[in-house]
Structures are given as C-alpha cells and as structure tokens.
Amino acid sequence: MNAPAIQAASYLGPEGFGNDLTGLRAWPAPLGDALQRGELEGLHWSLVSGSDPSRFARMDFMCRLGLMAAELLAAGFEAMPGARRDRTGVCVETFTGSLDTDVRFLQLPRPSLFAYTLPSTVIGEICIRYRLRGPVLCLVSPDTRGSQALAEAADWLRQDDADACLCLSCEALDRGIAAALPAQLQPRRWHAAALLVGGSAGGLREKPFATGSLVEICQRLCSRSAG
C-alpha cells in the first residue's frame, strides 16, 4: 500500500455545501435562512443530485446528511469495480449520534423511526447505495470535530484491512429537538463532512493525508475554488 492520501472531500453545513472540485456553494434562499437557524426539514436529495434514491424520503436527518455528503464527494463509486468495493470501508464519527431520532421516537413511537435509532444506520444506507463491502465502524465520540475517524482509516490502510475508506463526521440535531435537550448535548452546529482516503496513486485531486479534525480539513479543502 502506498502512503495514504486524501482522494476527495465534501462538506455540508450552515454556510453552504460542496466538494474540493466545486468549492462551497451557498444554499438557495429561503432554505439557507432556515438551515442557519438549525432547521433541517428542507434538506432534500435534489440539492446535491438528480438521481433520487427511493429510500431518502423516509430517512432521518443523520442518514440524509451522511448520504448527501457521500454523494457530494463525486468519487465515482458507481464505476468502482467489485473488487474495489470489497476493499472500501466506511468509518463514521458522531457526537450526538441518532439522538434527534431517539427523541422523536420517544415522542411518537413508529416502526419507520425505530430503524434509525442507531447511529450506525447511516453506514448501512451508504453501503446499500454504493455497494461498499469493506470494514465499517461507528464511533460515538466526545469530540464534535471528528478527529478519530481519520486515525481509524489510517490503521485500516496500514494493516491492509482496506484499500480505501470513506470517513464521515456527522451531526444532525434539528433546532426543534435541540431546544428540548440540555445544552451539553448540543454540538455547536449541524454538519456532514466526508473524506475518501486511500493509497496515493498520483491523482489530480489527491491531497496529503493528515490526522486531526476531519471537519476542519473538509472545510478547508472545500472552501477553495475549483481552480
């Protein structure tokens, strides 16, 4: 395995959405105002792609954000050969996890919500859509910046458990639910930040691998213009 490298990056947050190719774009009005307030109801797949997955409408906010971040990577998952899918893992790190959905389920128990009361469900949705079959891990962390997922990915690559890893930091706490929770359970903002990490192959999009805050790395890479 070559030295690990960042092969693609994406980010969604109150300030906008995009990837390392397009740069960050502002949310369309008036959706942007609602998202700035932490109201996540307006997050729809059509904002990032025209190929609407049938499962998206019934997903919780965490799964919606995670799947949108994975799609925004523009990493060519659809064209990936089967052997590559078998060696591509997914590592998700989260502070609030499925707390938004847990509270909703307590308020109104429904079978359609129950499937999303685990923070690891977003991994399943990503693997189903992109047919990724490598190692998976969900980390519930006290760090809202996502600093452990990259370290785990580096271990997988170094130990030859995977050839690539989709690393995701995701916080999806809607304003309405957050208002009912203690302040210490609330992250500073909602977001989804994704990096595809793999062995360096000299690709034009490749960036040097660095451990640290996944969110800050994604924001930095995606805030640059395509040029």
Report on this structure.
With 227 residues, the protein is of the alpha+beta class. It has a single domain, classed as Thiolase/Chalcone synthase (Peroxisomal Thiolase, Chain A, domain 1, 3-Layer(aba) Sandwich). Helices cover 30% and strands 21% of the residues. It is built from nine helices and eight strands. It has helices at 31-36, 61-72, 82-85, 99-107, 111-114, 121-130, 149-158, 175-178, 214-223; strands at 4-13, 16-19, 23-25, 88-94, 136-140, 164-171, 191-199, 207-208. Strands 1, 2, 3, 4, 5, 6, 7 and 8 form an eight-stranded mixed beta sheet that branches. β2 (16-19) and β3 form a beta hairpin. α2 (61-72) runs parallel beside α6. It is globular.
Mean pLDDT: 91
What is the percentage of strand-forming residues?
15-25%
CATH superfamily: Thiolase/Chalcone synthase
- Please estimate the helix content: 25-40%
In CATH terms, what is the architecture?
A: 3-Layer(aba) Sandwich
Task: Find the structural class using helix and strand composition.
Answer: alpha+beta
Number of helices: 9
The secondary-structure element order is: EEEHHHEHHHEHEHEEH
Radius of gyration from the alpha-carbon trace, in angstroms:
17 Å
User: According to CATH, what is the topology?
Assistant: Peroxisomal Thiolase, Chain A, domain 1
Largest sheet: 8 strands, mixed
Strand tally is: 8
Distance between the termini: 30 Å
Overall spatial form = globular
Strand and helix layout:
Elements: E1 4-13, E2 16-19, E3 23-25, H1 31-36, H2 61-72, H3 82-85, E4 88-94, H4 99-107, H5 111-114, H6 121-130, E5 136-140, H7 149-158, E6 164-171, H8 175-178, E7 191-199, E8 207-208, H9 214-223
Parallel strand pairs: 4-5, 4-6
Antiparallel strand pairs: 1-2, 1-7, 1-8, 2-3, 6-7
